[in-house]
C-alpha cells in the first residue's frame, strides 16, 4: 500500500521518484539487501545492479553488520557520481504494486478508492459463501 502513496499529491517524494513509479511495471522491481541490510523492494539503478552481481559480497558484509549502502557511503561517499547513485537508490523504493499506479492523485481519493474497492470485493465474495 505504501507504494501507492508515493504518487499522492501530498507526498514529499521527489518528482524523479514519482516519475519512476509511474513508468515502472510490476516486473521492474527487485528484492535486495543492499539498501538496509533487510529485504526490501525497489526499482534498481546501476549501483544496485552492480552490487546484485556480487551476492556473496552482499551477504559477507551483512553478516558483519555492514550494509552495502553504508559501506559505499563511507568508502566512496566523496565521489559525486557515487553520491548521486546512492541518493537515486533511496528514491527508488517501490513494491510490486507499482505496475498498477498510473496517476498522481490526492491521498483522500486514493484512500476512498481503496475503501470502495475493498467493499466491492467483500460484497461479491459474500455471495460465494453458502448459507447454513
From TrEMBL:
Database matches in Pfam families: NMO (PF03060)
Signal peptide segment: none
Cross-referenced PANTHER family: 2-NITROPROPANE DIOXYGENASE, 2-NITROPROPANE DIOXYGENASE FAMILY, PUTATIVE (AFU_ORTHOLOGUE AFUA_2G09850)-RELATED
Name of this chain's protein: Nitronate monooxygenase domain-containing protein
Species per Swiss-Prot/TrEMBL record: Alexandrium andersonii
Organism classification: Eukaryota, Sar, Alveolata, Dinophyceae, Gonyaulacales
